[in-house]
């Protein structure tokens, strides 16, 4: 007589294995790409006389019905069919009968999943590019309003030299432009179709991989079937590109957090993107940029996870790569909402010009201008000019003044070598003049900032 406990254990183990082995609960995200790939594959099979035209039409109509059922919520996903490919094919066969079993001719789930995933990555690469471009446009628009708004430029988070706020915003525009270009480059490199590679060595059927590549919007089929089914570089590139963009989002988030603090008060964030403390009603916390900063670690983890999965895999396909999708889906949703909400934060924040201008009078931001003047006008070695400037900074400190606020008498008494200095030095130490003197290409002058803005406006139109 069979042991009932053993039977229960066997059933439990089988269910546990099904749950462990299945990917349907996350790869169902690829349903539209899976159906799109199957329709293209069926069209190619009919053109090659591998299936009949009637069978192809039946397959296509059946797949479109499956698509409709999924999008309406009518379709029921189940662990009985372990992945999206089997779930779609099973429902297709239920709808159209035997013809549904022909759709998998001359392909494997290995090349099918790689095709679906590549299509997904390419689509998301394009949509994220557009979001980045929108964010760049917001930076450019904000910069256009602040090409004369003086603020302290910093190194080591210490006041360094006067710049304008528009120039600072254009630094971020350039940063995110590189992100945009990385996504563009990845799209070009990865826009090749794995479909038809089959399990890992191609197929004996007379297929036309160039046709399926064309139907799916790829440039051409991939060159090597073994590499095709084991490749996840396209996913890694997406994760790297997202991680780099999130790093840039985190950097500006950090500055927004600093700038809206009482110590800076350079900006005021919209109440929509800040919260009050649960216990201190006077506080306004920059929760949104803090979350943006925190979510960066999340996408880093997804990149490291997939790199670790891939690092020891022999050719060709291995089940390990089933773990490639969840992190990508998570990173994509994270970057999409992060770009969207950062764009809104930047659009709605208020810039406190007066506080920025007052901050420029802390830290002797025009000290370098005196040294440069002495080199250019007095023919001094820079190191000598450096130490003379240091003496004048000490003089300003003793008067509780910023160096930009000194009059000619105070400057001349600041160091022996300055006793007969020309009165024009006063204008050189002026904050606005100092900012505009940095007129080299890419510099912070209003003229150069406007040139950068104009360049970006043309680039955004392209």
Give a written overview of the molecule.
Belongs to the lyase 1 family. Argininosuccinate lyase subfamily. Its main location: cytoplasm. Its EC number is 4.3.2.1. InterPro entries: Arg_succ_lyase_C, Argininosuccinate_lyase, Fumarase/histidase_N, Fumarate_lyase_fam, Fumarate_lyase_N, L-Aspartase-like. This is Argininosuccinate lyase. The chain has about 450 residues and is mostly helical. Helix content is about 65%, strand content about 5%. The protein is built from 19 helices and six strands. The chain has helices at about 5-20, 25, 30-45, 55-70, 85-95, 110-145, 165-190, 210-215, 225-230, 235-260, 285-310, 325-350, 355-360, 365-375, 380-400, 410, 425-430, 430-435, 445-460, and strands at about 150-155, 160-165, 190-195, 220, 265-270, 350. A hairpin with a 2-residue loop joins strand 1 (about 150-155) and strand 2. About 40% of the residues are buried. The mean pLDDT is about 95.
Secondary-structure-based class equals mainly alpha
- The rounded distance between the terminal residues' Cα atoms is 78 Å
Alpha plus pi helix count: 19
The helix-strand sequence is HHHHHHEEHEHEHHEHHEHHHHHHH
Q: How helix-rich are the residues, as a percent range?
A: 55-70%
> What is the subunit arrangement here?
single chain
What is the general shape? Answer: elongated
The whole-number mean of residue pLDDT values reads: 94
Q: Biggest sheet: strands side by side, in what order?
A: 1-2
**Sheet bearing the most strands, described?**
2 strands, antiparallel
What's the β-strand tally? 6
| Percent range for β-strand residues | under 5%
- The whole-angstrom Rg is 31 Å
Low-pLDDT residue spans: none
